[in-house]
Write a structure and sequence with these properties.
CATH architecture of the largest domain: Alpha-Beta Complex
Number of helices: 10
Number of strands: 21
Strand content: 15-25%
Strand order of the largest sheet: 1-2-3-4
Largest sheet: 4 strands, mixed
Shape: elongated
Length: about 375
C-alpha cells in the first residue's frame, strides 16, 4: 500500500475534506503511512479532528518545533515547508502519492530533502468515488435545496404577466438575474449556497455553460442548471430543468420529448459494473437515430454547436464535476457512486433543452435522488 500525503485546507481541497470532514480554512498536513492516518496542525484544531473518531493521530505544530521556527523570524511559507518536512521525517515517510494540486513550493522543499512525491490524480479521485454516509447525507440535503430553488423559480415563472411587450413579476421585469436571486434565497433557506447558477434563456440555452443574463421574453425557453453545495458537508448536488412562459415551439417540444426519453434510457442502464462510456454511446446512438449530430457520430476534428455535443454525465460529491465519467472517456460504475445523467439537444442561435437527474449507484442497481417533474409548461 502506497503512502499518501496531502497539504491543503478543507475548503478548497476535496481530497483533504474527504479525509478530514471539517471546515479547516488554513492548510495543514495529512498523511497515511502504512495505512495509518496522521495529521499535523495548529493546536486548536487538534481536538476537533480527534473528536471525529476516525483514528487520525494528530500532532500539534508545537511538537514539531513551530515556536523555534517563529523565533528565528521565518516567513509563513518557510515555516509551512519546514513543518511539512519535519512531520514527514517524524512519520518515517520517504515517498508518497500526492494530489495533482499539491502545493509546488512544499513539493520542491520536500523533494530537495530526499522525499519522493508522485502526483496521482486517479488515486485520489478513486478514493472519493464511494461516498461516506455523511457525504451521501450532504448530497441529499444539497439536492433538496436544488429542488426547493427550482420550485421557487418555477412559481415565479408561473406568476409572470405580460407587460409592455415583455414579462413582469410583482412589478419587476422578468430577468435571469431576478430568477437567480430567488434560487439563491431558496438555497440559503435550506442550508446550501452557490457561487453561480445557470439561468439562461432563448439562444443562450444552446450554449452549455452560458450562465444566462437579461430579460426573458414570452414563449422563450428558460434553462436552469442548479448545483448548490451543502454547507455542512461541502457536498454538491446538480440538476437541470427547462421551462417556457407561454407557448413552446414545436422544435423545443420535440427536444424535450427526445431528451426525456434519452434520460430514461440512460438511467435504466445504471448499475455496478456498467461503463459510463457505454451509457454515453447508448444516448448518442439514440439521438443519431433521430437525426441529430453527436460526439460519437461526427467527423474527427469537427466542432459541434448543434445536436448533442457534451458528455452524458459525471460524478458528483465534494466537487460538482468528479469521477466517474460518462462520456467518450468512461469509468466502470461502482456501488456508492453518485452521478448525473444529463442528455441535451441544442441548435446554435435558437435554443436547447437539457434534463439532468442525480443518481446513486446501489448494490442492485440505482436510486434516483432527484424528485422533480419535467414539465415545460409552468401554468
Amino acid at each position: 500500500m502506497a503512502d499518501v500525503l496531502i497539504v491543503a485546507d478543507t475548503r478548497s481541497s476535496p481530497e483533504m475534506r474527504h479525509e478530514v470532514p471539517l471546515v479547516i480554512p488554513d492548510p495543514f498536513l495529512y498523511a497515511e503511512v502504512d495505512g495509518n492516518p496522521h495529521a499535523a496542525t495548529v493546536s486548536f484544531e487538534k481536538g476537533r479532528i480527534e473528536e471525529l473518531n476516525l483514528g487520525i493521530e494528530v500532532t500539534a505544530l508545537e511538537e514539531l518545533g513551530v515556536d523555534e521556527l517563529l523565533d528565528r523570524g521565518l516567513r509563513p511559507h518557510e515555516i509551512s515547508r519546514e513543518i511539512s518536512l519535519r512531520a514527514c521525517r517524524a512519520l518515517g515517510l520517504g515517498s508518497a502519492l500526492v494530489p495533482e494540486h499539491f502545493p509546488a513550493g512544499v513539493a520542491d522543499y520536500l523533494r530537495a530533502a530526499g522525499i519522493e512525491l508522485m502526483p496521482d490524480p486517479e488515486h485520489f479521485r478513486a478514493r472519493r468515488r464511494v461516498k461516506t454516509d455523511a457525504e451521501l447525507a450532504g448530497i441529499r440535503r444539497a439536492q433538496q435545496a436544488a429542488e426547493a430553488a427550482m420550485s421557487s423559480v418555477r412559481d415565479v415563472l408561473a406568476r409572470a404577466e405580460h407587460r409592455n411587450g415583455g414579462l413582469a413579476v410583482d412589478g419587476d421585469r422578468l430577468t435571469c438575474e431576478l430568477l437567480k436571486r430567488r434560487a439563491d434565497a431558496a438555497f440559503v433557506a435550506h442550508g446550501a449556497s452557490a457561487e453561480e447558477s445557470i439561468v439562461s434563456h432563448g439562444p443562450q440555452t444552446a450554449v452549455g455553460h452560458d450562465m444566462g443574463s437579461g430579460e426573458i421574453a414570452v414563449d422563450e425557453v428558460v434553462l436552469l442548471d442548479l448545483f448548490p453545495v451543502d454547507r455542512q458537508s461541502a457536498c454538491y448536488a446538480d440538476m437541470t430543468r427547462v421551462f417556457v412562459v407561454g407557448e413552446a415551439s414545436d422544435e423545443i417540444r420535440t427536444y424535450q420529448e427526445l431528451v426525456k426519453e434519452a434520460l430514461d434510457l440512460a438511467v435504466a442502464e445504471i448499475r455496478p459494473g456498467v461503463n459510463g462510456k457505454d451509457v454515453h454511446r447508448l444516448v448518442c446512438d439514440f439521438f443519431h437515430d433521430h437525426g441529430f449530430p453527436t460526439q460519437l457520430h461526427k467527423a474527427e476534428g469537427e466542432i459541434l454547436e448543434d445536436g448533442f455535443y457534451h458528455g452524458t454525465g459525471h460524478g458528483v460529491g465534494l466537487a460538482v464535476h468528479e469521477a466517474p465519467g460518462l462520456g467518450r472517456l468512461g469509468d466502470e460504475l461502482v456501488t456508492g457512486d453518485v452521478i448525473t445523467i444529463e442528455p441535451g439537444l441544442y441548435r446554435h442561435g435558437f435554443g436547447g433543452v437539457r434534463l439532468e437527474d442525480l443518481v446513486l449507484v446501489t448494490e442492485d442497481g440505482h436510486e434516483v435522488l432527484t424528485d422533480f417533474p419535467y414539465d415545460l409548461d409552468v401554468a
